Hints:
27% of the residues lie in helices and 23% in strands. The protein is an alpha/beta fold. The chain has helices at residues 3-17, 39-52, 65-75, 109-113, 143-147, 158-161, 166-169; strands at 56-60, 80-83, 98-101, 117-120, 124-126, 131-134, 151-157, 162-163, 180-182, 187-189, 195-197, 204-210.
Amino acid sequence: MNHNSRERVLSSIRQALAGTSPAPEPARDYLTVHTLDDDTAVLDLLHQNLADYRATVHRSTEPELPALVAQLLHRHGARTVAVPPGLPAAWLSETAAEQHHDVAPCLTRHELEAMDAVVTNCAVAVAETGTIVLDGGPGQGRRALTLVPDLHICVVRAQDQVVASVPQALPRLDPTRPQTWISGPSATSDIELDRVEGVHGPRRLHVVIVTC
């Protein structure tokens, strides 16, 4: 369609719409959650959906957390672990793995590729979709930090980081920050639907839900 033809079409549309009332705004009374808004039920749903996506889920209390993190790192033979800025030092206080803090100067690409694991927290976790969201805030680090190491241990605080649904999660996130939405370990499938894990991120994802 050339320029003149386009203008003729648009002019015809304007004439046809002249004098008509604008369409009313549709009612947007959508549900923001599709599950019972009960804290225990929401945590159980998050646990179930994360496991469905092949993440390994653990429940822990705050005092138990350092020993659990150390146990997971040891179980997977992790000798080096990347540590994002702002991660509580106590979480790694019992591990024998060598800690590499990603502070200025940040870990180089080669140093990052040598990391066996990374430990982070998250911005929010969504129960209905089994998703954890990272936005680069304190304790989360830059995106490469959680995409390169083969093992990602993510700590989720049940009290203030778990929501039931995506509509409840979005107001908690800053749209100007870089976000990574994670549902299980990195995985892809070829045309024959053969699943391959670890292509675009960590092959192993452990989520620790801290209840108190």
